[in-house]
Design brief:
The protein is mainly β. Helix content is 5%, strand content 63%. The protein has one helix at residues 44-48; strands spanning 2-7, 10-15, 19-23, 32-35, 40-43, 53-64, 68-74, 79-85, 88-99. Strand 7 (68-74) and strand 8 (79-85) form a beta hairpin.
Length: 100
């Protein structure tokens, strides 16, 4: 079974045992996070006729993504700007999906 959850303004497909990378979430490493009614957008059982779905996930670590380079240039104007950015992320493992 799977469910589509919303975390950090984005949507992720959650299957039991899979690892997902989300925007930084509040919580300590090793703690369990529950995604309940408002955070679960779609699940197979709820589409068939189930009531509520709860997705439990464990925080594996907090880290930063690889650096991306933002480079702006206007030709023939002697204008160049280079900037780097690293986004903070949380690594989650989906423990279980509870229906009903």
């Amino acid at each position: 079974m799977f469910a589509v959850i919303k975390a950090g303004g984005k949507q992720y497909i959650a299957k039991e045992g899979c690892v997902i990378f989300t925007e930084r979430l509040e919580g300590e490493v090793g703690s369990i996070i529950d995604f309940a009614n408002d955070d679960v957008i779609f699940s197979f059982k709820s589409a068939v006729g189930g009531n509520s779905v709860v997705v439990k996930a464990e925080i594996l670590e907090h880290k930063r993504r690889d650096k991306i380079i933002v480079f702006k240039k206007k030709r023939r104007k002697d204008y160049r700007r280079k900037q780097g950015h690293r986004q903070n992320i949380s690594v989650l493992r989906i423990k279980e999906i509870i229906f009903g």
